[in-house]
Amino acid sequence: MVIPESSRSISQEDLLRLLGVARNWLNSPPGCWLLESERAVMRKALPACFGHHLVQYGLAAELLDDERTVLRNHWQLDLLGGPSALPVEETQWPFAPHSLDAVVLHHGLDFCLSPRSLLREAGQAVRAGGHLLVFGFNPWSSWGFNHFAGRDWFSEAGFISPARLTDWLELLGFAVEKRVDGCYLPPLKSQAWLERLRRIDALGQRHQLPGGGFYFLLARRQALGLTPRRQRGIVFPTLHLPPLVAGNRRTHKRNE
Q: What is the value of pTM for the model shown?
């Protein structure tokens, strides 16, 4: 079975611009609400991960700032780089195969040139028994309406459905152990309205109703047959970090 290619493309330059706009949006009321909800999910999910090496890649570089002590070694990878992040290309990570205990993709698949290539790169770095933690925007939600309607940066973000992502993970040898949904209100710009409607959001989270603005998948790499031998010694086989180059990214406008 082959993971299908998608429809539209976006240049590397446009992707970096899109990522910058989305990160600025995280400072808005709906952006702060999104991060607050996702951090709550992370606090409950990380104790299921064990080991020493964790890598985070994606939209918010500071998502795990309060949880750095869960795993001993913690690296941040980023297309734009930064004071605490390693600048990398999405398909060329400086880690040996099967060397990481956990990888967090915080909307990384929503902001990349090729979601399936990024997922493959992240997956092959995870050891047998290790975890892949993926946050994504749900196309079947009020947030997805903004995506299909072409509003703001939502129109260019990936919005890959959780069902499709689950299929991709299975192809790469991962089993989804847990799914959590959150943000059941539309991304309202008014903080006052978000506060007034929090009861609706709390109800959706309590019963894990379908239609949350984001979803979280906790997937574990399966050990089929003989367990691959763990790469001993240095986690980084080399630290030749390539510069960003022009490329194409496929966005997901619909699930066919």
A: 0.83
Q: Give the CA distances from residue 43 to residues 38, 63, 146, in Å, rounded to whole numbers and listed in that order.
A: 9, 10, 29
Classify domain 8-224 by CATH architecture.
3-Layer(aba) Sandwich (3.40)
Helix (H) or strand (E) holding 180: strand 174-182
Whole-number Cα distances in Å, 183 to 119, 142, 178, 254? 24, 10, 17, 21
Reduced to 3 states, what is the DSSP secondary structure of residue 237? coil
Residue with tokens 């902001």: 111
Q: Which two tokens stand for residue 173?
A: 């040898």
Q: What is the pLDDT of residues 135-169, one digit of tens each?
A: 999 999 999 988 888 778 888 899 999 999 999 99
Beta bridge partners of 243: none
Burial of 77 (0-12, 13-18, 19+ CB in 10 A): buried
Distance CA 96, CA 42 (A): 25
